[in-house]
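# step 3/5: fold
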Amino acid sequence: MFGLGPQAKDEVRRVLLDYYAYAGAHVERIAASALPSVEAIQTAIEEFDAAGCDQLIISPAVPDPGQVDLLAAAVKHTKVSQSLLVH
């Protein structure tokens, strides 16, 4: 899960805490695992690529179609196998 933009970090946290409330004590860890920045997304993609991942699905936590454009811009400058990015 990711969220980008000026208010995204707080909004992603709020959404995940609400959605995963049933997880009890684990909800904080789930919320902390979100990718709240371009750098976090790029690092995660590079780490999955280095581990041999050939397909990666990153979903927005914020229900805003503009998140897809922000993700595309973040991924554009990631140095990984193009087969991981193009599906």
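# step 4/5: annotate
Residues 8-85 form one domain.
# step 5/5: archive (pending)
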